């Protein structure tokens, strides 16, 4: 996609990606100790990543045939 990313979405993605890359959470403790909004956006980003992977796999399969 080539649409412009909203500033809030960009900040959320930056935080989630940083947490994923560093294998940490933003606050002390485990997942259930995190802010509920962060857990929600983390889940949404993970779901979007899965959807994107599925689309890319489908396109790759279609290109092979």
Key phrases:
65 residues; mainly alpha; elongated; single chain
Structural commentary:
By secondary structure, this protein is an all-alpha fold. It has one domain (7-64). 69% of the residues lie in helices and 0% in strands. The protein contains two helices and no strands. The protein has helices at 7-22, 36-64. The chain is elongated and about 50 Å long.
When the domains are counted, the total is 1
Low-confidence stretches: none
**What value does the average pLDDT take?**
93
Distance between the termini: 24 Å
Main beta sheet: none
Which radius of gyration do the C-alpha atoms yield?
15 Å
Structural class: mainly alpha
Number of helices: 2
Listing every helix as H and every strand as E from the N terminus to the C terminus, the arrangement reads HH
> What is the strand content?
under 5%
Proportion of residues in helical segments: 55-70%
Count the beta strands: 0
Net shape: elongated
């Amino acid at each position: 996609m080539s649409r412009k990313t909203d500033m809030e979405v960009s900040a959320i993605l930056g935080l989630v990606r940083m947490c994923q890359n560093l294998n940490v959470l933003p606050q002390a403790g485990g997942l259930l100790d995190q802010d509920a909004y962060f857990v929600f956006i983390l889940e949404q980003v993970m779901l979007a990543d899965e959807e994107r992977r599925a689309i890319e796999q489908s396109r790759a399969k279609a290109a092979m045939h």
